[in-house]
Amino acid sequence: RQLCYEHDVVGVDVVEVAPAYDHAELTVNAAHRVVFEALAGMAARRRDAADAEPGQPARSYRDARANRDV
Fold first, then answer.
1. C-alpha to C-alpha distances, 21 to 18, 31, 67, nearest whole angstrom
2. What pLDDT is attached to residue 18?
3. Domain count across the chain
4. pLDDT tens per residue across span 22-66
5. Distance of alpha carbon 49 from alpha carbon 58, whole angstroms
6. How far is CA 18 from CA 15, 30, 33, in A?
7. Interatomic CA distance for residues 60 and 35, integer angstroms
8. Model-level pTM?
């Protein structure tokens, strides 16, 4: 999360997860956690860049387009 928050990360890739060979589901849970934390960091960076109040969601792209001045 911290890495994706502090740097301009544009994508995250989970290379390999093999649930058929992972009976304890360790790799699946680790992959889930990595993707979740990365997305949380990217979302927090985007929220803060949009000058939204902490804890408040940033405006979505759709909302921004609907309210644009034409």
1. 6, 15, 50
2. 84
3. 1
4. 889 898 899 999 999 999 999 888 888 877 666 665 556 566 666
5. 9
6. 10, 12, 16
7. 21
8. 0.65
